[in-house]
Amino acid sequence: MSELLNRRLALLGERANLSLLEQCLHGIERECLRVTDEGRLAQTPHPEELGSALTNEQITTDYSESLLEFITPALPDPADTLASLDSIHRFAYSKLGNEYLWSPSMPCPLPAEEDIPIAYYGTSNIGQLKYVYRKGLALRYGKTMQCIAGIHYNFSLPEKLWPLLKQAEGFVGTDRDFQSSSYIALIRNFRRYSWLLMYLFGSSPALDAGFLRGRSHQLEQLDPDTLYLPYATSLRMSDLGYQSNAQAGLTPCYNDLNSYTDSLRKAVATPYAPYVEVGTHQDGEWVQLNTNILQIENEYYSNIRPKRVTYTGERPIQALMARGIQYVEVRCLDINPFLPMGIDLTESRFLDAFLLYCALNDSPLLTNTSCSNATSNFLSVVKEGRRPGLQLQRNGQPVDLKEWAGQLLEQIAPLAALLDQCHGGDAHSKALDAQMAKVQNPSLTPSAQVLAAMAEHKESFAQFSLRQSRAHAEFFRSEPLTAEQQARFEELARSSLAQQAELEQNEVGDFDVFVGAYQASILAISNQRTDRSHALRGNAARDALR
């Protein structure tokens, strides 16, 4: 264990500081497709009873009208975060009629590309902006890829922790600079070690054969309707997923916040020839927001993002540059099809210990070699992580996955113990023990269990997924919310619809001018702290385009 990590553990373990870690915040965003009773993509509009997808803070849509997204508040105890997610599921199921929430990350059998409905957000300028952005995603990456779902895990360390560490380590600079550089260091370590999460929690070793739309691939045929790789952990996170020639040269540097935001700002402002050739309009209709490498910052696909809650009308980059990093969003987690919510408290407790390890451990700058090793290790594990004797690259040397995973878990154990000391009990250490068991026995991993369940029941991927979806529906519907909880969600839905209606009634200004002002805001970003003349209407405390 590094000297730095030892010193930090000792400091946080002091009685005066121990309660600090109780103030970590946890938020979860869970995406899931709505499907029919036959396990086909639901073609119905976003249910009005769930409220407005534009303004409801807990239930919205992601890419497609059929792709729901449930958003919890950020809470200190992940048990409360999961209880919130559970309540959102129960409310949604009270309004879904005979539809189901699809249990895994990889989609159900999909209709033709043109029949996948893009999410619609009404006639306000911000609603239209979100819609055109999604039209641009369809143009650039295809609609099929946008139907993949995942779990996003938002995590922050307490604001009071950073000045304590800064003082102890003699950092020269502001508290905000130290906090941002510490989160960037966390992200570098996450890049180094996130292959471990894919081994432990990857849950997508197989997919519906129609998903690839006849494209060439290196998958194997499991049955007439299912493709898979025998040792895969997460095909969702493999190079089958989001592929983009435009983004191929975009590798934001995680050496500091300024270089990270600068690389994204340039990508949002730099034209890309194939997109320029298409243009922003076809037959007088908007087809993409601009012809640049990225339409907006969030189009950059990454396994983890530095984040800051945005003000109304503020872009994510502007928020980061103005006020620094507030939390990280882990984006590489598969939905576990055996769990009703796709994630459970054991996974959450382990994630906390893992992220704390990434935050407090030494984190040297990434060289070109270490960066490419991190990428290749990740891709090796998602495609063949359970292969016996699989070798990864560490410091330029081959290392056995099982050996390295065991060493990492041993190094994370003191962080789990510190969290247990802080919270009482031994829940974090038990969560770590559960992961050690998966390292010793790959058949305990969710990816292995998915393939085992399909084999046991002689099911295709789609049949297995629909069976799990029905079981989860029964789980949520068998115990409805209390009348009080139900009423609270229904009021939230009603008020969100009213909020959208008010936005649309009071809209001023032409949409083309609105888009122009939005684009201009990225070019004038250096003035963003003082000049809010281009402020746009949007939904406070949420990314305008998510």
Overall, the morphology is: globular
Uncertain segments are 526-545
- The SS-based structural class is alpha+beta
Q: How far from one another are the termini?
A: 38 Å
**Whole-angstrom Rg:** 23 Å
Beta-strand level of the residues, as a percent range?
Answer: 5-15%
Beta strand count:
14
The main β sheet shows up as: 7 strands, antiparallel
- The percentage helix is 40-55%
Please work out how many helical segments DSSP would assign.
17
Q: Report the average pLDDT across residues.
A: 93
What tags apply to this protein structure?
about 550 residues, alpha+beta, seven-stranded antiparallel beta sheet, three-stranded antiparallel beta sheet, about 10% strand, disordered C terminus
Give an overview of the whole structure.
β13 and β14 form a beta hairpin. This protein has 546 residues and is an alpha+beta fold. α5 (175-193) packs across α10 (345-360), α10 (345-360) packs across α13 and α12 packs antiparallel against α13. The chain contains 17 helices and 14 strands. It starts with a helix and ends in a 23-residue tail after the last helix. The strands form four sheets. Strands 1, 2, 3, 4, 5, 11 and 12 form a seven-stranded antiparallel sheet that branches. It has a three-stranded antiparallel sheet with strand order 6-8-7, with no helix packed on it. The longest helix has 23 residues, at 401-423.
